[in-house]
Specification:
68% helix, globular, mainly alpha, 5 helices
């Protein structure tokens, strides 16, 4: 299940709710809408932070897009996880979910997302919104698990290619 993004309205009858009772799903939608608003503010502040680092407009845009996908899609996919608590979930994102859900997943996009999320959670720590320990976990996960994420991407791509034959 996924939150209905205010930027991408959809016919609610097509949203899969995993058998969730209707009142629970309504609460889920309300919580998602609240988190989307919070994330929009975070992303605007993060964009300003990146620009203050004298990054090019193209680089800033890429980082914002990567982080927006993470905080508004992955962190709200089945559970509602605020961005402030999302640093420790990078392994599940880049090591599995991103590879299977993002049609553009490749070695470069995995590395780019890792870089964007490192910058985002550095920004979050500087603002006092995420703990330095969570940032350290994210950085360690990226450093130690990147080879496995690349191997998983190869396995997934090989499986997908073999099914097409």
């Amino acid at each position: 299940m996924a939150c209905i993004s205010p930027e991408f309205p959809q016919d609610k009858s097509t949203v899969y709710t995993s058998g969730m009772p209707e009142d629970s799903y309504k609460k889920y939608e309300v919580d998602c809408a609240r988190i989307h608003k919070e994330n929009a503010t975070l992303l605007r502040d993060f964009e300003r932070w990146l620009k203050d680092k004298n990054l090019s407009e193209k680089t800033v845009s890429a980082h914002i897009g990567n982080v927006e996908f993470y905080v508004n899609q992955y962190l709200l996919y089945s559970d509602i996880t605020p961005a402030a608590h999302g640093a420790v979930h990078i392994s599940g994102f880049l090591g599995a979910w991103f590879i299977r859900k993002a049609l553009w997943a490749n070695k470069s996009s995995i590395r780019a997302n890792a870089a964007s999320l490192k910058k985002f959670y550095t920004f979050m720590v500087e603002r006092g919104l995420t703990s330095p320990e969570d940032l350290a976990i994210l950085q360690e996960d990226i450093r130690e698990e990147m080879p496995e994420w690349m191997a998983e991407l190869r396995r997934f791509d090989n499986l997908a290619y073999s099914e097409m034959e």
